[in-house]
Amino acid sequence: MSSEIDDIEDVACEDEEQEMFEHYRFAVDKGQSLLRIDKYITDHMEQTSRHRIQLAIEAGYVRVNDVVVKANYKVKPLDVITIVMPFQRRGFEVRPEPIPLDIVYEDDDLLVINKPAGLVVHPGFGHFSGTLINALSYHLGISQDADAGDERMGILVHRIDKNTSGLLVVAKNDESQLDLAKQFFDHSIQRKYIALVWGNIAEESGTIEGNIGRDPNDRLRFKVFQDGSQGKHAVTHYNVLERFGYVTLVECILETGRTHQIRVHMNYIGHPLFNDDRYGGDRVLKGTLYAKYKQFIDNCFEILPRHALHAKTLGFVHPRTGKTVFLESAIPADMETVIEKWRNYAGTRNLNEDNS
């Protein structure tokens, strides 16, 4: 049962920033007089400032009859007003916990965390404590009760799943949260991932394009829908960094940010991530039949008990200064050790680059 709960959390914690989710809906009375929309929403929402509503409008998160409007829009009778956000609305109690954080950048508006693999980002079923949000709650001196509508307490603007390591940006105030979320939604954030994948990729670089949606045969997996009739548009660019014959080290650049995007796209082209148990990378897919080679792979899996994916770089425009912030994190020890083992193995075995 616990592994099933972990699986659900794994799906929930992948990047979701390009999707928009409805948080609030107002059906305007037929007797309503004309009124600015920022004033109308403020009057109808408790504990929300007009300034925050104006920020949401500026970010394009407020719609009337499914059309984005400006702050000076006058609400009319029978209008349907919705507020959407690039993350789902869920209420979880969040208690501060003194969990160590690897903070690579911090100022008055935001901070960037280097998340270790295995750390769940947000509380959910099966993970009500020990998460990144619990750690941030302690670090920032904030908490959230179970009735809260904003599942991220207004601070997280994107996520990576629990078994992916790397950089996450965290907002400290409303302005930063809305500005950064908009940058993710507009695909203007710079992100590069390092991945170790099975097989010898034919090209030195390439682009994988294909709609990604939930696999109808397995709700915990996602897949590419070739005809484009299902799923959501997704684009991944990749460059080969090193070839080890039976596996390849690649750099992946996200143009979009769909759930499990890199894992799904690499599997789609026949190169699943090394030790990715969700997409078949947790068994020998390339190489020899010798027992010694099988033992080598098992040793690698033991050292790296998760899929080989690291969010290495993160670049964005600072919400207050307007300057570009670009950060980089080192590949974690578990993944670096396995890469070095493959480097040594390829050298001693003198594997040819035409192996696949």
What does this structure look like?
The chain is of the alpha+beta class and 356 residues long. The protein folds into 3 domains: 2-18 and 89-185, 2-Layer Sandwich (Pseudouridine synthase), CATH 3.30.2350.10; 21-85, Structural Genomics Hypothetical 15.5 Kd Protein In mrcA-pckA Intergenic Region, Chain A (Roll), CATH 3.10.290.10; 190-349, Pseudouridine synthase (2-Layer Sandwich), CATH 3.30.2350.10. 24% of the residues lie in helices and 26% in strands. It has helices at residues 2-12, 37-44, 50-58, 132-140, 174-185, 261-268, 291-303, 333-349; strands at residues 21-27, 35-36, 62-64, 67-68, 74-75, 80-85, 103-106, 110-115, 165-171, 190-198, 205-209, 211-214, 222-225, 235-243, 247-254, 309-317, 324-328. The strands form 4 sheets. Strands 7, 8, 9, 10, 11, 14, 15, 16 and 17 form a 9-stranded mixed beta sheet that branches. β12 (211-214) and β13 form a beta hairpin. α2 (37-44) packs across α3 (50-58). Residues 1-18, 146-152 and 351-356 have low confidence and may be disordered.
Summarize the helices and strands and which ones pair or pack:
Elements: H1 2-12, E1 21-27, E2 35-36, H2 37-44, H3 50-58, E3 62-64, E4 67-68, E5 74-75, E6 80-85, E7 103-106, E8 110-115, H4 132-140, E9 165-171, H5 174-185, E10 190-198, E11 205-209, E12 211-214, E13 222-225, E14 235-243, E15 247-254, H6 261-268, H7 291-303, E16 309-317, E17 324-328, H8 333-349
Parallel strand pairs: 9-16
Antiparallel strand pairs: 1-6, 2-5, 3-4, 3-6, 7-8, 8-9, 10-15, 10-16, 11-14, 12-13, 14-15, 16-17
Helix pairs in contact: 2-3
